[in-house]
Amino acid sequence: MAVAVGNCCFSVLTSSVKFRCSASTQRRFATLHGRSNSINDRLNKARGPSSCSGKSDCKKEAACKKELRGKAKDGRCYLYAEGYKGSADTAKTQSAGYKFGMQRKDKIELQYDLKDRQVLCSQFQVESGNLQDAAFLNAVVKVYCTHTAPDYSLPWQKQRQYTSTGSAFMIGDGKLLTNAHCVEHDTQVKVKRRGDDTKYVAKVLARGVDCDIALLSVESKEFWKEAEPLYLGHLPRLQDSVTVVGYPLGGDTISVTKGVVSRIEVTSYAHGSSDLLGIQIDAAINPGNSGGPAFNDQGECIGVAFQVYRSEEVENIGYVIPTTVVSHFLNDYERNRKYTGFPCLGVLLQKLENPALRACLKVQSNEGVLVRRVEPTSDAHNVLKEGDVIVSFDDVHVGCEGTVPFRSNERIAFRYLISQKFAGDVAELGIIRAGEFMKVKVVLNPRVHLVPYHIDGGQPSYLIIAGLVFTPLSEPLIDEECEDSIGLKLLAKARYSLARFKGEQIVILSQVLANEVNIGYEDMSNQQVLKLNGTQIKNIHHLAHLVDSCKDKYLVFEFEDNYIAVLERETASTASSSILKGYGIPSERSSDLLEPYVDSPEDNVAVDKGSSDSPVSNLEIGLDGLLWA
Fold it and tell me: What is the DSSP string of 512-546?
């Protein structure tokens, strides 16, 4: 099963995934071996010769049922390191940052604090090269998940369930960490300890889609008997040895691979389509390794394995979520009793490398980035203006290439500072406006996506009116329908348009269930509906409200390109029940649309300003000199 995305081609096979990418700029990284006194060498001695049975843990039939595609913003192709039944899964990623600002210290003993808790490395040391007795291996468990994904094309039902395997590890207080994509659309999650035949039911407490981390809990006391949780270590250095532990495909028992840290930078997280700090390693990461820990030379857990980059032009590139990102996720959950997400500034920036450009903007020094555009839904929209130059963030100077100092002699993308904050935090920006320096404060919040990458609550909204099926446009729907059937105009809006207010959606007519009442409209599909009886539609809930409150004789739907569909209101209402019965549909609308609609005056003001028909251009997104913060 081959699917082309951008310049990458994904071929989903029964037990492997092949990629063909044209990313000629990617460099090859040679495998570097760790020091002779490292934990990796001791693992080798203890392990001895081994062979792969070639036996897959999964059934072939489920492989082609699941197509999760991911292309990060940097053009690279990613693969989820999760063991699906018969296939591997592709991913979408996020970015990281360290702990920043106030962090609550409760009595809840989650062992993840990087500053105040001394890492107990002694319990992880492998004595005399005896890998079998290594305590840290016993903290790594295998995850068995049964998934039931929504059917976005037929939103009133779900797809056929499938199963996958992944990895997780204990962090104490009855909790485990794994990847969010390992338990996506879960209906049942079970975990099994090393050397145990019993599978224990686990519950998903929090799921961070943007950072691809999930927090699990297991209530069984038997599962935690004699368990020693892992403690999170510090950010590693380049060329530090790294050991990845998990349960990849190719066998049933625990697997250990080794390598070194190749690079640390802001990375595209394929699962959440976000940019966070990531650790690039050359240790082998395979389907099923997702959610497993990575250890340094001293036995400290330095992160969570989650994705790999595969193409014909590179090899041995795997990615680990660093403990700084993991700590941010856990602190967020502890502070709010739920996960709120990483914040963003909400501006499109341009580098200021050209001296003439800096002189024109009256920027005296070789620093700063130009504000090209501000998202209407961000707090920065009330503070920043197009043409402002951001020269500092919380008194940290921003270079003309959009980078800031990182550790002793490194630099990293400006987005890194933002990712250290929590939702609702305030950042102080130093800006130059018309040659004058000033400081402004901006509240940071998670980004509002006009077309979401993931659906909150799992099941998409829908509304059926006389056989016309309306639903919000989403990335999963685009993936399911295929880009060709969606059309270039909708794709352009999905990729580049900005939400004018919170809650705005692109509502489309996904299909028409043929009936006498809708004769002539049967071939309509995947078209955006703009107005009902002259009123501009804000979202699917607003459309349902307009239909319910309509007293006119006709329902007049206005679509893109001035296409109109008209239904007689009373006839449409009478025909709806027979159409639903004939197609075996339980309800004319999703359960969330049964709630009363609450209109917002702020939304009306945004709608009156006009449609967001000037999307961010392809060039703006694609050029190296422009980046979203």
Answer: E---GGGTT-TT--SEEEEEETTEEP-SHHHHHHH
d(CA 542, CA 504): 10
**Token pair for 162:** 């499938």
Which residues 6+ apart lie within 8 Å of 83 measured at CB? 57, 58, 164, 165, 166, 247, 248, 249, 287, 288, 290
- Round the average pLDDT of the chain to a whole number and report it: 79
Helix then strand then coil, in percent of the chain rounded to 5, is: 20, 35, 45
Tell which residue, 267, 293, 251, has the closest CA to residue 112.
293
Give the distance from CA 438 to its chain's centroid: 35
- Give the span between the Cα atoms of 528 and 561, in whole angstroms: 10
pLDDT for 454 equals: 87
Tell me phi and psi for residue 465, to 5 degrees. Answer: -125, 105
In the chain, the N- to C-terminal Cα span, in Å, equals 36
Indicate whether 409 pLDDT > 90.
no
Q: Name the DSSP letter for residue 234.
A: P
d(CA 283, CA 260): 7
Q: 119, 98 in Cβ contact below 8 A?
A: no
What tokens were used for 388?
């402002």
560, 530 contact by CB (below 8 A)? yes
Whether 69 contacts 5, CB under 8 Å: yes
pTM for the complete prediction? 0.78
What is the rounded distance in angstroms from the CA atom of residue 524 to the CA atom of residue 531? 16
Residue 62 in contact with residue 159, Cβ under 8 Å?
no
523: left (phi > 0), else alpha (psi -120 to 50), else beta? alpha
SS3 assignment, position 359: helix
Sign, CA torsion 320/322/327/329: negative
**Half-sphere exposure for 165 (CA within 13 Å, toward CB):** 25
Question: CB of 549 within 8 A of CB of 561?
Answer: no
Predicted local confidence at residue 316, as pLDDT:
85
What is the three-state SS of 408-435? Answer: CCEEEECHHHHHCCCCCCEEEEEEEECC
CB-side exposure of 467: number of CA atoms within 13 Å? 25
DSSP structure string for 446-510: PPPPSS-SS-TTSSPP-EEETTEEEEE--HHHHHHH-HHHH-HHHHHHHHH---SSTT---EEEE
CA dihedral 29, 30, 36, 37 (to 10 degrees): 10
- The rounded Cα 45 to chain-centroid distance in angstroms is 39
Tokens of 175: 């909790």
Alpha helices in 83-201 (DSSP H): 135-138
Structure tokens at 442: 């901006």
Query: Does 247 score more than 80 pLDDT?
Result: yes
513-548 pLDDT tens trace: 999 999 999 999 999 999 999 999 999 999 999 999
Q: Is the pLDDT of residue 91 over 60?
A: no
Exposure on the CB side of residue 270, measured as CA atoms within 13 A: 24
Active site residues: 181, 212, 290
